[in-house]
Design goal:
Number of strands: 24
CATH architecture of one domain: 2-Layer Sandwich
CATH topology of one domain: Cholesterol Oxidase, domain 2
Number of helices: 12
CATH class of one domain: Alpha Beta
Structural class: alpha/beta
Distance between the termini: 58 Å
Largest sheet: 7 strands, mixed
Helix content: 10-25%
């Protein structure tokens, strides 16, 4: 079996590349271990807590015991289904801040500054404001990825934005447009009441073409012959076989599985490969290194009035939500319920936002467990640019073994300072007049936890991943010893092999990673096709003019 281009992974970037390569007339084959995304657990936005906790859809990875979190092992969901993690995520769409991509460029990812990537964000977007304002001039309107906004009909959703304004922060009509900093409405990848994943946006249209094929199989390694990638070894129906690539092999298997596949194929730190008896094809010290993520806390409050989504948190309520969604894709199930957001700066002297908020009008965890009986609300809050770095490594030379994942979370003093500040800033927001009619008491951390030591104990016990792993095959110049791919997404040291997914991020972007991951797939597709990249757009984003002296 063969094709011109063999893509490993039908996730956010892989689907985008399959679509663009097939659209250009290339014969494309996508290898995906996961199965169908059919069914309400994935397609109903309000059911988002279910698929990431189902082994059918999730690889089920866990971190190693994290030394700075008391040895806790944190869940690290990755999508094992068409659409990849875009089929099990929270459906939140964030481009990232312009300065994030300028940092990429300055760190050696030439041609990936904000001016360079903005045209690709426009190309992928089909943005609908839903009557909630925004910056149409900054957004794409005819791309494959539908981006919408929720109904915002819960009083708590509006109270959060109003409270932010009362606390002295700006309001922004579109954090993906001219001004990220401030409080305002969230964008979501939902269309006509259904999750609009990379599978819906890109893969399914691509598969309608005769030149695009999906093979359900488990990728074992890249076959490299005399320094060139020639195919992918897979297991299918219990048998090992090779799918041949006439032009190139492209890895898009996630920031956890892509470096694992590189190392199993002989591309990685030579000493680590030797430990597992793997012959070295290319000694690349950066493979698996530079692992980053966003951590977050849930700051939760009990509500004094029955205004939250808790009224649906019973058998009858869930039946009502499900029936209404099944009937006409409407009601609470048609939204991820993350309908208000905020991006703020943690301190004076920080030039662009480094804290993100997701507001939710119910007090609940990602695993679907209510944290307290009764009505409540919560803000998910966390720093965006942790200096901590971890690594993905091989557990063994057996492709079936999960990779070893150590994030090394909270390994610097700055991490602890940032999270204490997150808690205290959030408490201040919840104390504003807008919440006075609804705020009853703080569920967690709890008003009795005030000192640095008390807050550190809460952080250590309760901080959770926001599920944004990235950076494990960093993009950079070919002479950079820690770079894994060059700015055209070519794996350095191996011909005919590219890698394009969140692995290539030099540094984590500001916010959720699905949007930037799709953008990477879009732009990499032009490099693969040998096309001149889209012309840069020198739009200048808003930066608080008083950032050097004021926190807000």
């Amino acid at each position: 079996m063969q094709a011109e281009y063999v893509i490993v992974g039908a996730g956010s970037a892989g689907c985008a590349m399959a679509y663009r390569l097939a659209e250009a007339g290339k014969r494309v084959l996508i290898i995906e271990h996961g199965g169908t995304d059919a069914g309400p657990f994935i397609q109903m936005p309000g059911a988002l807590s279910y698929p990431m906790n189902m082994s059918r859809y999730d690889w089920g990875y866990m971190s190693e015991p994290e030394p700075h979190l008391g040895g806790r092992r944190l869940a690290t969901p990755r999508g094992k289904v068409i659409g990849g993690s875009s089929s099990i995520n929270g459906m939140i769409y964030v481009r990232g801040h312009a300065r994030d991509f300028d940092h990429w460029r300055d760190q050696g990812a030439d041609g990936w500054g904000y001016a360079d990537v903005l045209p690709y964000f426009r190309r992928l977007e089909n943005w609908h404001s839903g009557g909630h304002g925004g910056d149409p001039a900054w957004r794409g309107k005819d791309g494959p990825l539908h981006i919408t906004r929720g109904a915002r009909d819960n009083v708590l959703t509006h109270a959060f934005v109003e409270a932010g304004q009362q606390a002295g922060y700006p309001v922004t009509g579109d954090y993906n447009g001219h001004q990220q900093e401030g409080f305002g409405p969230f964008d979501m990848t939902v269309w006509k009441g259904r999750r609009w994943s990379a599978a819906s946006a890109y893969l399914k249209p691509a598969l309608k073409r005769e030149n695009c094929t999906l093979v359900r199989a488990f990728a074992r390694r890249v076959v490299i012959t005399e320094g060139r990638a020639t195919g992918v070894e897979i297991t299918r129906n219990g048998k090992v076989e090779v799918i041949h690539a006439e032009a190139e092999v492209i890895l898009a298997a996630s920031s956890l599985n892509s470096p694992k596949l590189l190392m199993l194929s002989g591309v990685g730190p030579a000493a680590h490969l030797a430990e597992h008896g793997i012959d070295v094809v290319a000694d690349r010290a950066g493979v698996g290194q530079n692992l980053q993520d966003h951590l977050e806390l849930y700051i939760q409050a009990a509500a004094s009035k029955p205004v939250s989504l808790y009224k649906y948190w019973n058998l009858a309520g869930k039946a009502y939500v499900g029936a209404r969604w099944l009937l006409n894709r409407s009601g609470p199930g048609a939204s991820n319920q993350f309908e208000s957001a905020a991006f703020i700066r943690s301190a004076a002297g920080v030039d662009y936002p480094d804290i993100q908020y997701h507001f939710l009008p119910i007090a609940i965890r990602y695993d679907g467990q209510a944290s307290a009986e009764g009505h409540g609300f919560q803000a998910h809050v966390g720093p965006m640019r942790s200096p901590s770095r971890g690594a993905v490594s091989l557990r063994s030379a057996d492709p079936q073994d999960a990779p070893r994942i150590l994030f090394n979370y909270m390994s610097t003093d700055q991490d602890w300072q940032d999270f204490r500040r997150c808690i205290r800033l959030t408490r201040e927001i919840f104390e504003q007049p807008a919440f006075a009619p609804y705020f009853k008491f703080e569920i967690q951390p709890g008003a009795d936890l005030q000192s640095d030591e008390e807050l550190d104990g809460f952080i250590r016990e309760h901080v959770e991943s926001a599920y944004h792993p990235c950076g494990t095959a960093r993009m950079g110049r070919a002479d950079d010893p820690m770079a894994v791919v060059d700015p055209q997404a070519r794996v350095i040291g191996v011909d005919g092999l590219r890698l394009a997914d969140s692995s290539v991020f030099p540094r984590i972007t500001n916010g959720n990673l699905n949007g930037p991951s799709i953008m990477v797939g879009e732009k990499a597709a032009d490099h693969i096709l040998g096309r001149t990249p889209l012309p840069p757009e020198n739009a200048e984003p808003w930066v608080n003019p008083d950032w050097q002296t004021q926190q807000r």
